Amino acid sequence: MSQQSSVALPHGRVDVVASARTDVGQVRRVNEDGFLSQMPVFLVADGMGGHARGDLASRTVCEVFADRIEAGRPTTPEQVLDAIETANASVRRVDPSAMSGTTLSGIALVGTRDGAQHYWMVFNIGDSRVYGWDGSELAQLSVDHSLVQELLDAGRIGETEALTHPQRNVITRAIGAAEQVDSDVWLIPAKGRQTFLVCSDGLTKELADTDIAEVLAGAAASSENADRRPQTPIAELLVQRAVAAGGRDNVTALVVDAIVHGRSGDGDGDCDDETTIDRGDVARELEDTLPRRPRP
Amino acid sequence: MSAHVVRYHAAAPGRWLAVVTDGRAAVVHTGADAQLAGDLDTALAGGLPTALDRLLRDGIASLPSFALLEWTPDLDGTLEVHGLLRGEAIVELAGASGDSEWEASGVTTWLEQRTAGVTSLRIDVPDDADAMALPLGAGAVWVSRLTVSERGSAASATKTSGAAAAQNAGSARAATEVGPTVPLAAPAAQAAVAPLEQTIADLSDTAMLDERRGFGAQTAYDHLFDATIVRTIEEAAVRADDAEAAPGGGHPDALEAGALAATAEPQAGDHDGLTITTADLAAMRGNRAEASTPRASAAPTPSHQYFLKLSTGAEHDLDRPVLVGRAPSVSQVPGGSLPTLLALSGEPDVSRNHARFDVEGDTVLVTDLHSRNGTAVTLPGKAPQLVRKGEPTPVVTGAVIDFGGGTTITVCER
């Protein structure tokens, strides 16, 4: 299913078309994935713990976010971080005698304190992922909290080994795992057309990034050719393909297609590249206005 | 009628301790650790996660070899066995649909397995085995082998040289001879007063049995495959010294091969994501709770409340770092240190991410983030100075910061 929403901003509005789909897959009995797709927050939670506990953990996270984040208007980074803390505490309270946990990855439309600027806040705990799609290229925005990612960062294994590493199911952070939750966040200025994919590892372990890009590109092409939107939502296409490829885990995909109309924040519409004007009266150095790049 | 008995093969004191309670057994290489030996029965009574918690008390580096098993009867009288395994202990399981073996050599942390349809099982540890198998209801004994099998069947699970004759020899006397010299908590004071054969299941309802027939076979190899588990980075990290300590060999490849062997067990049967998390999460909680306490109390209370005043009149508290730029963005920062973004839009001289304000202790620091046009600081009564790019520079209250656009920022204090 696709859902459309439109939110007014101080200097324009943002239109969002979101599609979400989850599938138990071909092997597992219980779907422990959960998602929330409700402007301004779009998230996926992949529960762990076995029996119904993983399911309960991911559902708890979705409920907390639905409860704490007011629907239909931009939220703030503080509220999102607060919801993450609350979700952590709630998952830990679910059943203190038994243990459960869940990943949490998502995006939220947030405004600054004065409400003048808007950003897509990307947040991540665990190994579900957020990707950005610019119409031609897929870029992984979040960085997994997994043993394999640690090994990759340390140069102990390569990209190819990472895909088949026997311990690729070991994650290093999760909601509900500890008293305090360590989230990673990103803030990306909201402007123009931006497409995000939020998904559980059931999708990314079955489909290579190139496969995902192919589906996204195909969907974009068919929506341009047809008078109407494509019959099948993109999230559905992605999940179908992952399940067909094996579906060894629960598969969840959430695709958010957002268009900001009018001025939001930056104000310069051409901001794909550095557009700072050189005054020339100070030392010229190699331009690097984005010093903190995400880890590869 | 179906029932299961636990039997053990005695060994000399001071190496492998077996603790048996209702439906659970722990075989742990306690060595001379009397405290651990004394704690085990209480810990095991709380379930496998609690037992693991106790074993993990001193961290993963000093975690001994162990086998923690829990068995529950299915409706057909076979057992569903849940096990945590580390190091040298080996578990063999026999079932209607074949035998299997759990073995954790080469696993950095521990192996978790679950198998249904088990008729008997055996835990073996590398110690000199006494040939005699003695029954054990509940208690603690030094062992070289522990078996769980159906009442009346051969004493040991698989391929065991006959100790079945000793089946009825178990007595308080026998137990006393090999009996525990370890301190035991009060509830287990009657340790090793065998032979209180445990009836785990008593099912004669054949209709029910028929209904469930086949279930055991179908799920005989049901166990964890590829279920997501959580470990802290510390625990999960594959380290050189772990690799050396692992019995599988010192080379990381050997380690990975061992882990692969451990996870590459048959994956047939249903799978619903029964997970190692239970134990892991519990362990993490314990560790985390300890680790986070001093951190929280160490945070100093700032005695100054700084804020930034823009030449436009707007104010921004410096309770969190502030990132200033034409179109600032943040890439992978911990949620706890997320900066406030202050956009100076419509100022083309200002870089997207231009400068950052932090408060460290009682000092305000401004860092130019390698902006194109630089950041100038004017201290009260002084001439403007360009700050070095990338270097946090202390500024005092009253300092005016110029990013080259129309807007300046003054550091203020409440």
Rough outline of chain A: globular
Low-confidence stretches of chain B: 155-225, 238-279, 284-299
The strands making up the biggest β-sheet of chain A line up spatially as 1-2-13-12-8-9
Distance N to C terminus of chain A: 33 Å
Major sheet strand order of chain B: 2-3-4-5-7-9
Going by helix content, strand content and strand pairing, the class of chain B is alpha+beta
Largest sheet of chain B: 6 strands, antiparallel, barrel
Low-confidence stretches of chain A: 264-274, 280-296
Proportion in helices of chain A: 25-40%
- The CATH architecture classification of chain A is 4-Layer Sandwich
Indicate the mean pLDDT of chain B: 71
CATH class of chain A: Alpha Beta
Shape descriptor of chain B: rod-shaped
The level of helicity of chain B is: 10-25%
Keywords:
heterodimer, A: 296 residues, 6-stranded antiparallel sheet, 27% helix, disordered C terminus, B: alpha+beta, 2 domains, 9 helices, 20% helix, PPM-type-like_dom_sf (chain A), protein serine/threonine phosphatase activity (chain A), PP2C (chain A), Protein phosphatase 2C domain-containing protein (chain A), PPM-type_phosphatase-like_dom (chain A)
